[in-house]
Amino acid sequence: MSNVFYRSSKPYPVAVRGEGVFLYDDAGRRYLDGSSGALVANIGHGRAEVGERMAAQAARLPFVHGSQFSSDVLEEYAGRLARFVGLPTFRFWAVSGGSEATESAVKLARQYHVERGEPGRFKVITRVPSYHGASLGSLAASGMGARRELYTPLMRPEAWPKLPKPDPARNGAEDAEGLRALLEREGPETVAAFMAEPVVGASDAALAPAPGYYERVRDICDEAGIIFIADEVMSGMGRCGSPLALSRWSGVTPDIAVLGKGLAAGYAPLAGLLAAPQVYETVMGGSGAFMHGFTYAGHPVSVAAGLSVLDIVEREDLTGAAKERGAQLLAGLQALQARFPQMMQVRGTGLLLGVVLGDLATGQAFETPGIASRIGAAALKRGLITYPGSGAEPNGRGDHLLLGPPLSITAAEVDELLALLAGALEDVL
Ligand code: PLP
């Protein structure tokens, strides 16, 4: 008997080793990691240099508490990261995971307005669908019925007004006007922030708005005096072919950028936010302290992993690689659409790609969730890891598959991924 509390009753293979884009289980089976776990393992598995850097850090300085010390490794990383994502004057607040990071961003936006003398601003507008995390605050921010339902009695929905998802077929700037209308309905003086994933990940298979959308969002946020939070936990750190997805879509600068997943690429728990100077200075020049903190925030071993990952991302130009291999994978998926018309939409950018699965009879997203997880299970049987999802539509329908292998994947491995996926689609459709 195992003492592990599994996430579901399905049987799990037991992983023992990872190398490049492959994972191996205790029965010696090999799996091509077509989704980098949950879009995490950006540099691939088993890079000894990251482990060595972490071990050296643990031996030299394993821990300091953020209320007492900064650390040399955190000082170096904050500067390198801010320059890498093109926000060189922003301040880095480190935490352990994406949910902690989005919740930190929400709390920072709230405190910013209180410090400015506007305590009436507390609402945070987010989109449906969206996924910002599993903790109660980040889940309340998320527009994902299936993951929220059980916990809504613990939330305060009126604090989290929801904006419908962008429609890439519309004019981007006009599409973004929905935010202005919602702000007017809510009363802009009650709203602290607007938070959105520049390219939607887990909840809606790599959905991005049309050009012009974020430029208009930026203007509307400025006019209403609200903080624009870009949740780049999944889309950032090169995955979309640029350091931040927002910069590939627009020249827009957020007030707070939230990062996670690819930061330490799964080698250690590391996430965080980058705050614009005016946000940081308003808090530091007001009460003088961010009223928030986690024991493991800025953990030196995690930050050492982040530094080593950033070295690899820059040295191997994995951002450029994401663009190139992403174009290859996208073209391969589009070619598969001719064989499997249930692949209603194939979309995304860089190596954040999604397939929306549809019902041929109705031309709509599948009514009953389940087809994506059946394809995911068939793929796993063939040795391919994917990231199936459902529930993008408000009524819970809308099955999709998210694909996002490590940015270090080779051209031949992309071909292998496509062949394995074709087999799984053949098995199920
Ligand atoms: N934000 C986005 C955009 C995500 O995709 C996720 C996770 O999928 C999160 C936040 C939550 O991150 P974590 O699972 O590390 O808490």
Automatic annotation (TrEMBL):
Keywords from the named record: Aminotransferase, Pyridoxal phosphate, Transferase
Superkingdom, natural source: Bacteria
GO MF term set: pyridoxal phosphate binding; transaminase activity
Family recorded in the similarity comment: Belongs to the class-III pyridoxal-phosphate-dependent aminotransferase family.
PANTHER family: AMINOTRANSFERASE, AMINOTRANSFERASE CLASS-III
Protein name per its UniProtKB record: Aminotransferase, class III
Taxonomic source organism: Deinococcus radiodurans (strain ATCC 13939 / DSM 20539 / JCM 16871 / CCUG 27074 / LMG 4051 / NBRC 15346 / NCIMB 9279 / VKM B-1422 / R1)
